[in-house]
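May I ask for a protein sequence together with how it folds?
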Amino acid sequence: MKRSILVLLMFIFLFFGFSTRAETIFETFDSDPVTRWWTNGEAGASSFSYNSEGYLEAHFVRDDQTARYSMAITPIELDKEFWVSFDCQLVEGETHRNLLGLFGSGRNNSTGSIGDTFTFTDSSENFRHYAVYWDSSGSSSRATAFDSFATTKPYSPNLIVRVNIHNFGDGSFQLDVYDLVADPMAENALFSTTNDSNLIFTVEEGLLFDRFGLGNRDDGSAGTTSPYQNYLFDNLYYSTNCPNCCKALPEFIPEPSSIFMLLGGGFVFLRKRKKLI
């Protein structure tokens, strides 16, 4: 099911790409991305590992802000509209922040970058997603998209979320967070930066973004090997054409319960597919 959807999406993206010169990336980890176009830019104690089950394992450590798992994109400025989405799960960790979004070659992850900064505070068991923009000087603007205190406390690290990002190209940036276990079709956002809470920033003329992916942060205690966080990622999406229309679930989401049915005088054992549309 997942592969057939990807083939359909490929034809759609190819058509729009040739007709509008748009760019779309949809990484589903069916094979190791570094054998294709992705770069594993490990640094310090942070690392990124491909899991053959079909997802990425990320180990973030607060000792460096250049570690990056990314691929090249056509350079754009923030006056260009684009969409980003991804699925993730915090497996374990301590207080730390990381970023998924757009970066610039030759810059660290805290200078000239934009996206979702996801953070977990272990002392209060609070999990947050921020829409964040750093300009070329490292000054930041941010808006809280999801705060676990606004929903259920304490936060369960087993929560699997989908994040949808929309940069409108006019200095406005929206971020929505969905609970994929409770809402597998991602129809009702847990929390969002819609309306007045959208991230608003001044578009810096000439600041180019040419990398898409994950980046490490060293907020607070640079140079230490702790705190750390372990995450799982799947379905990384970036497009200057349209939002992600694929509803495939990440490979690390729990298997649905098995079902027994009485059919023709006997029991038939059924197991739902892991991926849903």
